[in-house]
Amino acid sequence: MHAPDVTLPLRFMLFGMACLLSAGAYLLFHPALLVQYHYSPQIVALTHWVVLGFIVSVVSGAVYQLTPVALETRIHSERLARIHFLCQVVGVPGMVAMFWVWNLKQVGHFGSIFGLGVGLLAYNLYRTLKQVERRTPVSFGIGSAVTWLTLTMLVGLFLASAKCWPQINLWPPMSEMHAHAHLGILGCFITLIVGVSYRLVPMFTLGTLCSERRAFASLILLNTAVAGLVVTITLGSSWKLLFAGVALVGLGLFGAEMRAILKARRRGPLDWGLRSFLAALCLLAPTAAIGLALGSPWLPAGEFSAQLEGAYGILALFGVVTLAILGMMQKILPFLVWFRTYAPVAGKAPVPGLSDMSCQGLQAAGLLAYIAGILATATAAALGREEWAAPAWGITSIGVACFVGNALWVLRHWTRALPQAR
Ligand code: HEM
Questions:
Q1: What pLDDT is recorded for position 405?
Q2: I need a labelling partner for 81 at 20 to 30 A (CA). Which of 73, 256, 291, 358 fits?
Q3: Centroid of ligand 1 to alpha carbon of 156 (angstroms)
Q4: Which residues have CB under 8 Å from 2's CB, separation 6+?
């Protein structure tokens, strides 16, 4: 059995969920922040609370859980992973609190603790990947994503230092910040989603990877696009459109491979966890369209483009990345709980199937409310309609509450085996 002790990924995921819920609750009482220009201490702080607290925590937990399973090897060191968790729960709240008061020196200090954690993750993963001979699209995707995360962290520390010592700035700070954001969201999060999809979607649909060559090509193009976009965005060069095009071709190949896997699958109807994940992948299309518009020379810089940047960030972070994670957590959580509670008694007593442990009604309501809410929130941001933000985020929060309700429904099985219908 290659997976680490179940409490290792779970502690990252539970901390991550706590960050998402607290950020979501704060926005419920301050919805105007969702339509205001995205560059203010509060929004930068909230962005890092969601990005580092929720997404990086869940991503780290998933990497520790999935890499050994996907590559059939053991994680190099569970002890280093536990130290990483400590760096996460100290570094991230510290960074966010210091962003809030815009004390960039202290952001740098707490960011270094967070950075140490990312370094431990990268080292642990590098040593784990070294144990397997054959490179697969999954190991390539995970390896690329953690490399981009490490670079994003280092650029973040540079940005914080440049606020304290402006003379070290080489390029316009806003371009550096946009490059930093793309490095993290496209480079780390979206590349990771693409990479692990090549294992998780076949695994959960009883399908197979149809073309390994196409899978590798999609990741090579995505990595090329990330490298090119970071340079051209920093330099403010119009060549960024070319690399945006390369990213689109890479994502197009990914879409084609996903479609082929789903067409060839052996398991019939898709459950709500997979539907949520696939819905998140579909939101890549409007996100990419807005990204192209923002990168094009035809959209003049001004109030509308500033509002569109906000919609772009909301769709990328909450539409694609967060929904993909919530979708996959609906698959992974029953798996983790089943292994802990039922694996020891399987074959000796009646045990539930994985799908019996979830609440389909909550899952369906969650997905519909979440998508409607996110699209309404992004529209409110793009059109600068503050009065729409509260109802739009309210609907999104109902979606998140349904997902959490379903997670709690699954976690009922954590402490003890529940009686099964004979
Ligand atoms: C040690 C780690 C990090 C530090 C010190 C850091 C620092 C910063 C700073 C100083 C800014 C504002 C830049 C400016 O004012 O010009 C910023 C913005 C941003 N960072 Fe980070 N960052 C870190 C990690 C990350 C990571 C890992 C991600 C994503 C994966 C990320 C995503 C973002 C985003 C999306 C923005 C733009 C926020 C906005 O537009 O409101 N950061 N970061």
A1: 93
A2: 358
A3: 5
A4: 68, 69, 72, 73, 74
Q: Which tokens sit at 292? A: 């192209």
C-alpha 177 to ligand 1 mean position (Å)? 7
Distance of CA 415 to the CA centre of its chain: 29
pLDDT of residue 47: 96
Distance between CA atoms of residues 227 and 198, nearest Å: 22
CB of residue 310 inside a 6 A radius of ligand 1: no
Q: Is 182 in the pocket of ligand 1 (CB under 6 A)?
A: no
Q: CA Rg, the chain, in Å?
A: 21
Closest CA to 311 of 390, 378, 384, 387: 378
Comparing CA positions, the residue from 118, 178, 174, 124 lying closest to residue 148 is 118
Query: Residue 349 — φ and ψ, nearest 5°?
Result: -145, 160
pLDDT value at residue 422: 47
Q: Is the beta carbon of 180 within 6 A of some atom in ligand 1?
A: yes
Beta bridge partners of 346: 349
The string of pLDDT tens digits covering residues 54-98 is 999 999 998 898 888 777 888 899 999 999 999 999 999 999 999
Cβ–ligand 1 contact at 314 (below 6 Å): no
Q: Quick one: pLDDT at residue 418? A: 66
Which atom of ligand 1 approaches the CA of 114 most closely? 1
Q: Which two tokens stand for residue 369?
A: 């409310």
In this prediction, the residues of the chain whose per-residue pLDDT falls under 50 are 422
Q: Please work out whether the CB of residue 290 comes within 6 Å of at least one atom of ligand 1.
A: no
- In DSSP notation, 315-361 reads IIIIIIIIHHHHHHHHHHHHHHHHHHHTTTTBTTB----GGGGS-HH
Neighbours of 368 (CB within 10 A): 15
Phi, psi of 103, rounded to the nearest 5 degrees: -100, 90
C-alpha to C-alpha distance for 60 and 66, rounded to whole angstroms: 10
Contacts of 269 (CB under 8 A, 6+ apart): none
With a 6 Å cutoff on the Cβ, whether 181 touches ligand 1 is yes
Whole-model pTM: value is: 0.93
